[in-house]
């Protein structure tokens, strides 16, 4: 494990210092239970049995603190609680709950530790535990990193079991029976004579007694829900147009707002003239906001019209104005040779004769969820309410408290259903802008909706990245692989700059999914270079793995081709992790890899281990007269346990489509300091007519559970690149492939 | 200005050049049609005017010359249209934001073409963007709805 090297010690030491009290304090705090946030608002007769189960006269509400942006988080969290609580999904309400340290995400840190996720050894587990303590201390209630299921798999089932046993204890007291005489089913405790006491009727009693915490979740053989097809709790509303989202927020007296912020992100407003806007129909007020201007009107469209009518002189961008300069910065950063981290350095890369050299690029990309950024904020003297769809409620609460001077406990963040996110809602600039407007409209609820153009122009994109590779092959085998990758730091931009949240040590997202791949290439080095600040960047579905999966696998396919080996066989030979090998074997078997193909057809394969989930894909394409057509994709992913096979299939297929669509069609580029793309006419992923048939298989060969929101994304682009190479003889080196290759 | 939406007559006092989408959402409080792009590039705002699917974000309210149907008027949770029932059966939605528009487009397709081929579905549905990537299920659901409509 030479690759732990210096990076582990650096992260550990700096990380513990950042706790202000050190590790001992951290450990102490980690052992302290966190107050149940539901206790504060309980009325008579209500019981909050754990932070996840609320029972009152309205019924049973399961608190699902990981936000739902379309991935089915509410359903999967509810199912895990309901499994143990003995209640059905059609009997419960779900609510994302208040921002609270009780809902800290312990799994989010796993991807940041300097151990490959397949390493479950003691050192790695200790480090994960430590990072978990850090997250708890920071109260980092985050939805991201494909962590909802791994984080909740035990915790939510235990919460359900605690609630169930406490309800049984309450029923035992009320009926003068012993707990062992009681059963639970469909939201009721059942007495030996068959009499049913609904959980609602036990709430008052359960609130009086000590919770029964000495419980263990049931073994998998007794599961009723987990692993079986479910109907998501939001499926009826989303199939009938009745689901409400953040953008649908409406309150008595609410006004509508729009903003235009300097498209040279972070630049100033030099001057503005709102004379025309102020006299437009329905316009109530024009308000300057940080870096821009806002307008308040009596409906959304009039607010849009008003901000567009304001003449603004914008200041310069605090980063290079032209795209070519951004690429040059990356090249210069690698050339300067000051590494951010070398998380893998096996064998002797320098000592070998290079046979293959490559340079690959991945562009900036927008998140562009279909529901544009929006937030509704009501500011009064002693209380602020925020209604928005957001993955970071605690950070938002803290930012709004700072801006308004209202005590953090009096800032109430209400998380609403999200029309997609893909990482966009890990940012809360829209809440900050809405708060500025609401501070100028005290007592009046203000709903701020971004125009699509504003959403695109103000997006904090995926970083662009440049990768240089040197490698060697001998005797039909890959013998050496050196990867140098440069990109701006997501952690610097997203966490440090915009959230004021220190992230010590190297930025692990720069080399994510490059250094921790389960291949035993004898000479294998990965070096990350942190470019100076360019366009502001953020986490984009699968984060560093989104570009690095392409880099690593496109390079590995290049080397395997140079070696004259088969890309499935050579990977299997190199793989050190058995579940990863089984994942690749699964797609090979599903697709009949190695069989004869028609003359104009070709296939490509890729694999990526990201967020702890091995995912392998094989794509088949037709190189026809009208261009390249994506025919079919086979995809396998190892997650330990597929909680809901129906939702799993949809998420995996969607991840493949996300990966393919951006790989061929999409990029964000800068000119004159602003992004050139504004709307779906010049930035779109895949559409229906380009979508291949997708065949999905979930694998359960491990005893721990990992997530699947992001892992299907990284292998899609390199598998396609390999198929294109085999079909055309030309290997794509740069995304989007559509710049060089024609697609149907 | 007179406007009939989902069978109900309304009188709205708005500019003639206000897009129908915003009249529906902000004046009539019908949230089924969604704002995604404002330029007819995503289809989330799709409604029927006189039985034909249109992008309400690019349809000026002054130009509306027939009754308007939104996703709320197509069917409801208690009485679903065949397209909505198929969407539920196939669990098409992820975030669901585009799906109202997708269903309105699909209903329009099936009313003109009761037995669409894969190519017909691609042609009719490719103007409706889904960022979550639910297209495979949209295809399945359209075919399923077509079958059910033919039976009934």
Structure description:
With 744 residues, chain A is α+β, with helices and mostly antiparallel strands. Chain A has 20 helices and 27 strands. Mean pLDDT of chain A is 88; it is low at 1-33 and 133-138. The two termini of chain A are 47 Å apart. Helix content of chain B is 39%, strand content 12%. Chain B folds into two domains: 2-73, Beta-grasp domain (Ubiquitin-like (UB roll)), CATH 3.10.20.30; 75-151, [2Fe-2S]-binding domain (DNA polymerase, domain 1), CATH 1.10.150.120. Chain B has 152 residues and is an alpha+beta fold. The chains are: A alpha+beta (744), B alpha+beta (152). Chains A and B meet through helix 7, helix 9 and helix 19 of A and helix 1, helix 2, helix 3, helix 4 and helix 5 of B.
Structural class of chain B: alpha+beta
CATH superfamily of the domain at 339-365 and 460-739 in chain A: Aldehyde oxidase/xanthine dehydrogenase, molybdopterin binding domain
CATH topology of the domain at 339-365 and 460-739 in chain A: Aldehyde Oxidoreductase, domain 4
What is the count of helical runs of chain A? 20
What shape does the CA trace of chain A take? globular
Oligomer: heterodimer
Just name the CATH architecture of the domain at 339-365 and 460-739 in chain A. Answer: 2-Layer Sandwich
Give the strand content of chain A.
Answer: 15-25%
Low-confidence stretches of chain A: 1-33, 133-138
The CATH architecture designation of the largest domain in chain B is: Orthogonal Bundle
Name the largest protein-protein interface in this structure: A-B, 63 and 59 residues
Quote the beta fraction of chain B.
5-15%
Q: What's the short version?
A:
The complex is a heterodimer of chains A (744) and B (152). Chain A has 744 residues and is an alpha+beta fold. Helices cover 33% and strands 22% of the residues of chain A.
Identify the notable features of this structure and list them briefly:
heterodimer; A: 744 residues; alpha+beta; Aldehyde Oxidoreductase, domain 4; seven-stranded mixed sheet; five-stranded mixed sheet; globular; B: 152 residues; Ubiquitin-like (UB roll); DNA polymerase, domain 1; two-stranded antiparallel ribbon; 5 strands; 39% helix; 12% strand
